[in-house]
Write a structure and sequence with these properties.
18-stranded parallel sheet, 30-stranded mixed sheet, 97 strands, globular, about 5% helix, mainly beta
Length: about 1100
C-alpha cells in the first residue's frame, strides 16, 4: 500500500458499526509534503497486519505522520524512516513468532504505546531515532520482551534512543538485554531506566552519549560478544547524569570525558565485582565526574572506590553521592589521594565533589599541598578537619575550590577547628563557612579568601554575634581584589548596613539559601556597592537561593542582577531551580537602569497600593534584559536555551518601567502583573507555566511597544493586550502543549504573525470590543492551530474582522472562526460585513479549519492570496486589487475575479496542480485564470489545473471583447517547478479541460479571452514549420454538463491547408447552428 503526495492526508481505516483489520505486505509513504493520519479509531479497536514488506517512510519534507491502529507482524520487518517522524499510536505485536524488527533511516520512529508485545524477538536500531513513551507504573514495556541491538554508529549511522515527553509525568523503561556496537546515545526528555532485568552487552568498546534527564542502568554491563567475550572499555561523554547500579562485569575500564557517572553500589564498579584490581580502572578528563553512592558497603571507600582509579590519568572529579529519594549519605572513611596507598598519587588537578548530596567526615589527605574540591554540580559537606601538612614534612596547605562551569559544586565546611594556613581560592563554585557559632575560627587569617570568576563565598550564622559584627567580621576574610559573589546563609535577615566599598572589583552580594516560607536572606540596611563611586549595586543568588533586597536604593549607577560570569547565579541546573533576587524597597530615587543578566528577578512593592499605584521597586530607569552566556548543555526539556525570568511578588502589580529586551525574557508563574512602560529590543517574551502548574498571565498596556522577538505562550498561559501595538512587531507563538488564551482589549490590535509549534498546540484568541479589526502582519510562513472568537457579551454585536498583511503565508488548521458578524466594508458593493480580509501574502484554510459560523460574511481578497487545502468555504468571496484564489477545495458561495486578480488552482498543499469547485464564478474584465499543466495527457486526472462550477447559471462571463479575461498557460517540469513539461509533442493536437460548469451566462465569445503563453516553456514548433496555436472552445455533453476547452493545434503541412480550411468552415457553421 503506497501513500504519495495527496490533497487529502486523512485516511479512515475503520468502519461502523464494526471494526476490522487491514492486511498489507508493506506500507510506503513517498514524496508526501504533508503529514498523513491513518485513523484506526484509537488504540485497541482495529489491527493493521504488516508482512515482510515492512514500512518505508520517505516524505518529501520532514513531516510527522501518525498510524492510529494496533500493528501485528506476519514476518521479519525493516522500517526505513528516511526523514521526518512516523508515530504508531497503538500496540505493536509480533504474533508470538519472534520476528526480527529493524529500524533504519535517519528519521524518527515513535512508539506511542508504552506496553508493546514484542515476544522475545530482536529489535535492531541501525540508524535514526527511536522514541519511547513514558509510564507512571513499573512493569510496562515499550519494547516488550525484545532484546535491543544498537548500532554500529559508523558509516553515517547515528542510532538514538529518545525517552519522549508525552505531556504527562513518568519515566521510560527498557527491561530486556541491550547489545551495544560502539555507542548508547540517548536523548532524555524523561528519565530513562534500563531496569535490573536488562543486561547491557558491550560487543566492542562503547561510549554512552546522553543528554537531558538522568539515565539509569540498573542491569549488569558485561563484555561481549556473548560467545567470545573480550575486555571492553566503557566511556561516558554526556551532558547529564548517568547512574550504574547493577553488578557490572565488563573488564576494559571506565573513562568519563564529559558529564557525570555515578556508581550506585560498590558492586557496580567492575573491579569490586571481580574482586580484582586488575580488571580495569576508573579515570576522567578535566570535565568528567566519577561518583560513588554506596556508603553502607562493608568496606572502606578508599579500598573499594579511591584505589580503583587510574590515578595519574584522572583529571576530573572524584565524587560522593546519595540517592535523592533517600537520606544523605555520610562517608566516614579516611580518604587518601596521595601516593601512599598504591604508590601513585592522583593527578594534581583531580578533586573531590558531588553531583547530588553527600557528607565526608573522615580524614582527607590531598595529593599535594592543596585540598582540591569542585565539580559535579551538587552539594558536599565536609565535616573533616582541614589542616596543614605534618608528614613526611611540614607544609602549609591551601583549599582550592574550582569546578567546570557547567557543574558548579557547593562546598560547606563545618569543622570549627579548620586551621590550614595556605589560603582559600574559589572559582566557578560556592563555598559556605558553616558551624562557626560553636566558637571556631576561620582558616587563613584576614583577607586570605580569594573569590574568582564564578565563585561564591557565604558565611553561616555566628552564634551570639550581632548582625553588624557578622557582616564586618565576614567581609574582613575576603581579599579586596575578589570578584564573584559574597553572601550570608541560614541567617534569614540582616538589618545592619553592608559596606562593600573596600572591594575594588565587581563583587556581588547575595545568598545561596532558600526557605520554602520565603527568601533565604532579606537585607534592609544601607548597601554600599563594591567597585568605586560609579559602580552599580550588584545582587545575585547562588544555585537556587533566594535573596530579597528591602533596602532603599538610589542614584544613577543602577543595579545589576545576576553575575554574567557565573552560571550558578542563573540557577541550579540539576535541580531545575532559578536563583532569585527580589527588589521590594521604595526606590523612587533610583534613576539608573536595572540590568538583568540571569536568574529570576521578582519585583515587590512597598509604596502605595498594589494594582492601583505603580511600584517604585525598579526606580525610574529602564529594565535592561541582557542575558548571559550559559554552558551549551544547559537547555530546557524542549531543547530551548534558558532565559532569565521576571516576576511579581503580588498579583496585579503595575510595573511602569521601560524594558529593553537585548535577550529573551521569561515571565515567572504565580502572580499576574502589568507592564505599562515601553518594551523594545530584539528579544522575545516567554510565558511559561512552570513546575508547579500555575498558569502564567501577563498584561501589556503600552501602544508604542516595538520589540521584535515576539511572544511565546506555553501550557495554559495567557496574555491581556490593552493597546493596539502592545505586542510589538514580532509574532505570537504557541508551544509546549499550549492551550493559551490571548485577549485583545483594543479596537485595532496588530500582531506580527501567528505560530503553533506542534500539532497539539492549540490557542484561543479573543477580541473584547465590537467592530474590532485584528491585523496579522506576517512576513514568514507558519501554521496556526486555534480559534478566533469575539469575547463581546450579548446583546452587543460580536463583530470582528481578521486582516492579513505581510508577505508570509499563514496556514490555519485545527480550529476556526467562531463569531457570527464581520465589520461593515463601505467600499465594496452592497457594503457587506467582512470577516476575513487578505491584503498581502497568503492565507491557507486547512481542511479542518471551521468557517461555518462566519458563512454569512464576506471574505475579501484585496491584494493577497486565499487558498483552500482540501477544505470548504461557505462565505461569498470578493477578489480585487490583484488578489489571488488558489488551492484545492470547494467555494460553496460566489467568487468574483476582478481586474488584475488571479484564479490559480493548486499551490496550497505542496502540489502546484489543483482542482477548485466553485458554486458561482464571475469572470470580469482584466481577471486572470493561471492554468498550470504538468502532464499533457488529456485523459490523466491531476495532470493540469481544473475548475468546476456548479449550480444553475453559475459561470458568468462579464468580460468583454474590448476588455477581455486572460488565460495564462504555465508549464511545469517533473519537479513541479516552472519549466518545460515532459511528454509534450508540438506535432500533435491536444484539447484540455479548463473548466466544467452547469450553465453559462454572458455569452461565450473567444474574443472575450486572451491567451497568454509567456509561462509556457515548451517549444510550439516542429520541423521548422512555425509555432502551433492555442484556442478556446466549448463542448457540451448534456444540459448541465458543459466544458470550456483549451486546444492546441500544430502547424499543418502546406498540402493540408485547403482541407483544413474546409474543416474549420464546417466547425464554424455547426457552432453557429448550436447557438441558434
Amino acid at each position: 500500500m503506497v501513500f504519495g503526495e495527496s490533497g487529502n492526508s486523512y485516511v479512515q481505516l475503520w468502519s461502523d458499526p464494526g471494526h476490522y483489520s487491514v492486511a498489507v505486505r508493506g506500507l510506503t509513504f513517498a514524496g508526501n509534503t504533508r503529514p498523513y493520519y491513518l485513523d484506526g479509531d484509537y488504540d485497541g479497536n482495529m489491527t493493521m497486519t504488516i508482512g515482510v514488506g515492512g514500512i518505508t517512510y520517505s516524505p518529501a519534507q520532514p513531516v510527522r505522520s501518525v498510524i492510529e491502529a494496533d500493528i501485528e507482524f506476519t514476518g521479519d520487518q525493516t522500517w526505513n524512516i528516511t526523514s521526518g517522524t512516523l508515530m504508531i499510536e497503538g500496540d505493536i505485536y509480533d504474533g508470538d513468532s519472534d520476528y526480527v524488527f529493524t529500524k533504519t533511516g535517519a528519521g524518527t520512529l515513535v512508539f506511542g504505546d508504552y506496553d508493546n508485545e514484542f515476544d522475545y524477538s530482536t529489535i535492531n536500531l541501525n540508524n535514526g531515532r527511536l522514541a519511547l513513551s513514558p509510564i507512571n507504573y513499573s512493569g510496562y514495556r515499550p519494547l516488550g520482551d525484545a532484546n535491543l541491538v544498537i548500532g554500529p554508529d559508523t558509516g553515517g549511522n547515528n542510532p538514538i534512543i529518545v525517552a519522549r515527553d508525552n505531556n504527562y509525568s513518568g519515566w521510560v523503561e527498557i527491561d530486556h538485554d541491550i547489545t551495544l556496537n560502539g555507542a548508547l546515545t540517548t536523548e532524555n526528555h524523561r528519565e530513562l531506566y534500563l531496569v535490573s532485568t536488562s543486561t547491557v552487552i558491550l560487543n566492542t568498546d562503547s561510549t554512552i552519549r546522553s543528554r537531558g534527564m538522568p539515565l539509569f542502568i540498573e542491569g549488569s554491563i558485561v563484555d561481549g560478544p556473548s560467545e567470545t567475550p573480550a575486555p571492553r572499555k566503557l566511556t561516558v561523554d554526556s551532558s547529564n547524569i548517568v547512574v550504574l547500579s547493577g553488578d557490572n562485569a565488563y573488564t576494559g575500564g571506565t573513562h568519563v570525558i564529559n558529564g557525570v557517572l555515578i556508581f550506585g553500589s560498590a558492586l557496580s564498579i567492575p573491579s569490586n565485582y571481580h574482586e580484582s584490581g586488575s580488571v580495569g580502572h576508573l579515570s576522567s578528563g578535566s570535565n568528567g565526574y566519577v561518583g560513588f553512592a554506596d556508603s553502607a558497603y562493608t568496606g572502606s571507600a578508599q579500598t573499594y572506590f579511591i584505589n580503583d582509579f587510574d590515578k595519574a590519568n584522572t583529571h576530573g572529579t572524584i565524587g560522593f553521592d546519595s540517592d535523592p529519594e533517600a537520606s544523605i549519605n555520610t562517608f566516614t572513611d579516611n580518604l587518601d589521594l596521595s601516593s601512599a596507598p598504591t604508590g601513585t598519587a592522583f593527578a594534581t588537578d583531580a578533586r573531590l565533589g558531588s553531583a547530588t548530596e553527600a557528607i565526608l567526615s573522615g580524614t582527607i589527605t590531598p595529593q599535594g599541598t592543596a585540598y582540591r574540591f569542585g565539580g559535579g554540580g551538587g552539594w558536599l559537606q565536609v565535616d573533616s578537619l582541614l589542616t596543614d601538612q605534618t608528614m613526611p614534612t611540614t607544609a602549609a596547605r591551601s583549599l582550592v575550590l574550582d569546578s567546570p562551569a557547567a557543574y558548579p559544586l557547593t562546598l560547606k565546611l563545618t569543622n570549627t577547628g579548620n586551621n590550614y594556613t595556605g589560603g582559600t581560592s574559589v572559582t566557578n563554585s560556592g563555598l559556605i563557612f558553616g558551624g562557626s557559632g560553636l566558637g571556631g575560627t576561620f582558616p587563613g587569617g584576614t583577607r586570605n579568601i580569594s573569590i574568582n570568576a564564578g565563585g561564591y563565598v557565604g558565611f553561616d550564622y555566628w552564634g551570639d554575634l550581632s548582625e553588624a559584627n557578622l557582616v564586618i567580621n565576614s567581609l574582613m576574610k575576603i581579599n579586596t581584589a575578589s570578584v564573584g559573589m559574597v553572601g550570608f546563609d541560614s541567617v534569614w535577615s540582616i538589618s545592619a548596613d553592608i559596606d562593600l566599598s573596600s572591594f575594588s572589583n565587581a563583587l556581588y552580594l547575595g545568598t545561596s539559601t532558600w526557605f520554602s516560607e520565603g527568601p533565604g536572606l532579606t537585607v534592609r540596611g544601607t548597601i554600599t556597592p563594591a567597585g568605586g563611586p560609579s559602580a552599580p549595586y550588584r545582587f545575585a543568588a547562588y544555585k537556587g537561593g533566594a535573596f530579597e533586597v528591602e533596602s532603599t536604593l538610589s542614584g544613577a549607577n543602577g543595579v545589576h542582577i545576576g553575575d554574567p560570569g557565573s552560571p550558578g547565579t542563573f540557577g541550579d541546573y540539576w535541580n531545575q531551580e532559578y536563583s532569585t533576587v527580589a527588589l521590594s524597597g521604595n526606590n523612587s530615587a533610583l534613576t539608573g537602569n536595572v540590568t538583568l543578566f540571569g536568574g529570576q528577578l521578582m519585583v515587590g512593592q512597598s509604596n502605595g497600593t498594589v494594582g492601583t499605584d505603580a511600584t517604585t521597586a525598579l526606580g525610574t530607569g529602564t529594565l535592561v534584559v541582557a542575558g548571559m552566556t550559559l554552558p551549551a548543555t544547559w537547555l530546557d526539556e524542549y531543547d530551548n536555551t534558558l532565559r532569565p525570568l521576571l516576576g511579581a511578588t503580588d498579583t496585579g502589580m503595575i510595573i511602569p518601567n521601560n524594558i529593553t529586551l537585548n535577550s529573551d525574557l521569561g515571565i515567572a508563574e504565580f502572580n499576574d502583573f502589568i507592564l505599562t512602560g515601553k518594551v523594545s529590543g530584539p528579544g522575545e517574551i516567554y510565558l511559561e507555566s512552570g513546575d508547579y502548574g500555575e498558569p502564567t498571565w501577563l498584561t501589556l498596556n503600552n501602544d508604542t511597544n516595538d520589540f521584535s522577538g515576539g511572544i511565546y505562550l506555553s501550557g495554559d498561559s495567557g496574555l491581556e493586550v490593552n493597546a493596539n501595538h502592545a505586542t510589538g512587531t514580532g509574532p505570537l507563538g504557541f508551544g509546549s502543549s499550549s492551550s493559551a488564551e490571548v485577549y485583545f482589549n483594543a479596537s485595532a490590535p496588530v500582531i506580527g504573525g501567528l505560530v503553533s509549534r506542534e500539532e497539539y498546540d492549540y490557542a484561543t484568541l479573543y477580541t473584547t470590543l465590537s467592530d474590532a479589526v485584528l491585523t496579522i502582519d506576517q512576513s514568514f510562513d507558519s501554521t496556526f492551530r486555534g480559534e478566533f472568537r469575539s469575547g463581546v457579551a450579548y446583546p452587543d454585536p460580536q463583530s470582528l474582522r481578521i486582516v492579513k498583511t505581510g508577505t508570509g503565508t499563514l496556514r490555519l488548521e485545527a480550529g476556526g472562526m467562531f463569531f457570527y458578524d464581520g465589520t461593515i466594508e463601505a467600499s465594496l458593493p452592497d457594503t457587506p460585513e467582512v470577516s476575513l480580509q487578505v491584503n498581502q501574502g497568503t492565507v491557507i484554510i486547512g481542511s479542518n479549519f471551521y468557517m461555518g459560523e462566519t458563512a454569512a460574511t464576506t471574505v475579501w481578497v484585496h491584494g493577497g492570496a486565499l487558498a483552500l487545502d482540501n477544505g470548504y468555504l461557505y462565505n461569498p468571496v470578493v477578489v480585487d486589487n490583484g488578489g489571488r484564489i488558489e488551492g484545492t477545495g470547494v467555494f460553496s458561495n460566489s467568487v468574483s475575479i476582478g481586474n488584475g486578480s488571479t484564479l490559480s488552482p493548486g499551490r496550497a498543499g505542496g502540489s502546484e496542480i489543483g482542482k477548485l469547485h466553485i458554486n458561482h464564478l464571475e469572470l470580469n474584465s482584466g481577471g486572470i485564470y493561471e492554468w498550470q499543466i504538468q502532464n499533457p495527457d488529456t485523459y490523466l486526472e491531476g495532470g493540469s489545473d481544473l475548475i468546476g462550477v456548479f449550480g444553475i447559471g453559475t459561470l458568468v462571463l462579464n468580460a468583454t471583447v474590448e476588455s477581455p479575461f486572460s488565460i495564462k498557460i504555465m508549464s511545469l517540469n517533473a519537479g513541479g517547478l516552472a519549466g518545460p513539461m515532459s511528454g509534450f509533442d508540438p506535432s500533435q493536437s491536444y484539447s484540455w479541460t479548463l473548466m466544467f460548469y452547469d450553465q453559462l451566462s454572458g455569452g461565450f465569445d473567444p474574443a472575450k479571452f486572451t491567451i497568454d503563453t509567456s509561462g509556457f516553456a515548451n517549444s510550439l514548433a516542429f520541423d521548422e514549420r512555425g509555432d502551433g496555436t492555442f484556442s478556446l472552445s466549448l463542448f457540451s455533453a448534456g444540459e448541465f454538463e458543459n466544458y470550456l476547452m483549451l486546444n492546441f493545434t500544430p502547424v499543418p503541412e502546406p498540402s493540408t491547408y485547403a482541407l483544413m480550411a474546409l474543416g474549420l468552415g464546417m466547425i464554424g457553421w455547426m457552432a453557429w447552428r448550436r447557438r441558434n
